[in-house]
Amino acid sequence: MTVATDALGADEKASPAKDSRRWWALGVIAMAQLMVVLDATIVTIAMPFAQQDLHISDGDKQWIFTAYTLIFGGLLLLGGRLADYLGRRRILMVGLVGFAAASALAGLAQNATELFAGRALQGAFGALLAPAALSLVSVTFTEAKERARAFGVFAGVSAAGAALGLIAGGALVEYANWRWSLLVNTPVALLALVGAFAFVIKDIPAPRTGGYDLPGAVTVTLGLISIVYGFSRAASDGWTASTTLALFVVGVALLAAFVAIERRTANPLLPLRIPGEINRGGSYLIALLVPIAMFAMFLNLSFYLQIVEHYSALKTGVAFLPFPAGIVVSAGIASAVLPKIGPRPLMLAGSVLGAAGLLWLSRLEFGQSYASALLPAMILIALGMGFLFVSMQTTALHQVEAEDSGVASALLNAAQQVGGSIGTALLTTISVQVAERYVRNNGAIDHVMQRAAIHSYDIAFLIGAGFFLLCIPIAAFMVRDKPENLLEGDEHAVAVAI
């Protein structure tokens, strides 16, 4: 006998897929996700203005960015499990209220301490929002074609958010004030909160037979914070500095302890069967690698446009517009063909397109035009990112039981966060070293500083292309889901047999 014991509210059990509110709910969920993704980059252009206004030292300015990423990355798994145990809709709304308040605190900060505290709180509530949002997509859309379309929208928002953050940040700094790059989140979060009340389906929290896995929560949170902070320190202190190495050693030891705890506890924070399934494991590995490649483009093109080409903050943001536009197109294509061809061809195509785009950028030379040197490469990378994000997010949550969807979503976000931290630290460190060596070896040529900068960007683009290429064997050998498999197991998101 099969009884519908789903993740949705009692009034939705009979036919949640037929509830017309689910598409409005997707808009609300996408708005919450966009806010989290935007916040990681929207302050990038505002940082120099905040530093000057609040008299923040050069040594402390990194905390405007790091305070957010550290707490966000460290608390993701805990946030995902709270969504499973306390209800995804409830955690989404708690996250929206907290994010609105934290953004107001940061935007109205009168000193560095208040700004850093506000950014850290944004990270904490973002760690609730991100896994709750992705898991709500998983349990709300259960029919294969609609699920692919919903993940296409969500993936497009996730992948394009970083570029949109640069555009929004540039516009707000140029026409308003740096504070509005933070304050803008408050009305958006409150609007999303109203939408969540109206449209997001109430879900039933996963049943718990035991207590919370506090040892696991502590070890994984401190381990992720140590790893993320270690990469942040590597960018400023160097990879072989004692502080950097100590943070890495402590982080790895804590994560190893976490795995040992999860293997033995009866009520684990992260059931190891989630990353242990080969398709999902492949998706998590790709989720770790793709942000490194993506940061190769964002970080270095931002510097190139503003430092070498002397673009204004707003013009730099506008120059990135083809990227989110391309992602919207490719995410739409991916969501349409995913149920027919499966995730592996899309992952392979996305990896090849991304690598081709970064290889194109690696040929950048002094004096080239935007239309010939940047635009084609940006379009190739955008098309690849859309394919990768749709297939990656779908596979990472495919056949995950409803009671585990929050923590599975959190693991995907955690992989992307750590990958972004690796990309920032690795590429920043290498670019600086390459530029310094170029100046030493070519000090007599004209425009040596600009040429050195471009040469360092080219090397970073080549390294980014390498990370895209690493995704190819992972997708080829680990992602085995066939199109027909996407139609199987989706009932696990909404029902269990009794």
UniProtKB/TrEMBL annotation:
The keyword Membrane applies. It comes from the Bacteria. This is MFS transporter. The chain crosses the membrane at residues 23-50, 62-79, 91-109, 121-139, 151-172, 178-200, 212-232, 238-261, 282-305, 317-338, 345-364, 370-390, 459-479. It is a multi-pass membrane protein. CDD domains: MFS_MMR_MDR_like (cd17321). Keywords: Cell membrane, Membrane, Transmembrane, Transmembrane helix, Transport. Residues 25-483 form the Major facilitator superfamily (MFS) profile domain. GO terms for molecular function: transmembrane transporter activity. It is found in: Cell membrane. Coiled coil: none annotated. GO terms for cellular component: plasma membrane. Pfam families: MFS_1.
